[in-house]
């Protein structure tokens, strides 16, 4: 009798501890771009790493290509606590936290190395620290890359060739004014609507890194790609603060560690793809031309009023810190 009682107690204890240990946490990671883009590849790597680091207890499911909504809709869902993770362009975050706008200031970064140094350093950390007051927690910066203009009308050889194009921009005032400043007619919309807009000729042009042009199959609807490289675009890996605050300290650490590892993978993937996709896009029928350094600096000159306006708009102090950080990264 005594033995049976002991066994029952043991079974009950075991069941209870198994239940506590198996407390599964489910989270959804939404991306705006297709499965083959580093944004979604990075999300899947992150999900896998979170699984490994929590022995499968935190399960992150990835929904790509706008299945959960546009970048702006997903940011709102994170704030409301109805979605847990996303990694939008920092340009689309600037509506919530204006300081993020500096990253897209035209012709600021010369290369990816400078971007890594600035975004991984104190400047980037300070930017991410501004997110919690908007209901978001920033884990890392990922790469979208240098943005180039594609269009269906003509190669952009001179700065003036952009004038008159109806170009889709991100939903960000700096980008709208940047292309307005070059004489184009800027039409802001979500990237999830862009292929259809290009296909139906509602717009002539768009601007994105090679990886997006390839993943979104813009080569089917855009003839010309010109290497304007007008802005560097970082993504921000963000998490809903409502979700984050419910995690234990050790789970937060596991997620943060996974973010760090996934960042190295995402950036490397982005760079490898950008290096080889130019050739592939040519094979797929795009006509690609290099924009000369002289023309790029003429574009920059034309954009000086826009740069001045958005430097002020992001906050003088933030802008000063941003440019100082780039200068430091540039020093040999
Ligand atoms: O968030 O909207 C865009 O063009 C961005 O490159 C993309 O969606 C990343």
Radius of gyration: 22 Å
Total count of strands? 9
| Helix vs. strand class | alpha/beta
**Which stretches of 5+ consecutive residues score pLDDT under 50?**
13-19
What gap, in angstroms, lies between the N and C termini? 80 Å
Beta fraction: 15-25%
Number of helices: 14
Task: Give a quick account of the main beta sheet: strands, pairing sense, barrel closure.
Answer: 7 strands, mixed
Order of helices and strands: HEHEHEHHHEEHEHEHEHHEHHH
What is bound: which ligands?
(2R,3R)-2,3,4-trihydroxybutanoic acid
Q: Mind explaining what this structure looks like?
A:
It is a single chain. The chain is an alpha/beta fold. 48% of the residues lie in helices and 19% in strands. It is built from 14 helices and 9 strands. The protein has helices spanning 2-21, 38-53, 71-80, 90-93, 112-120, 122-128, 173-181, 194-199, 210-215, 241-244, 249-283, 293-302, 304-313, 316-330, and strands at 25-30, 58-63, 85-86, 136-151, 166-169, 185-188, 205-208, 224-240, 287-289. Strands 1, 2, 3, 4, 7, 8 and 9 form a 7-stranded mixed β-sheet that branches. Strand 1, helix 2 and strand 2 (58-63) form a beta-alpha-beta unit. Helix 2 packs antiparallel against helix 11 (249-283), helix 5 packs across helix 14 (316-330) and helix 7 packs antiparallel against helix 13. The model is unreliable at 13-19 (pLDDT under 50). The site of (2R,3R)-2,3,4-trihydroxybutanoic acid has 11 residues, from loops.
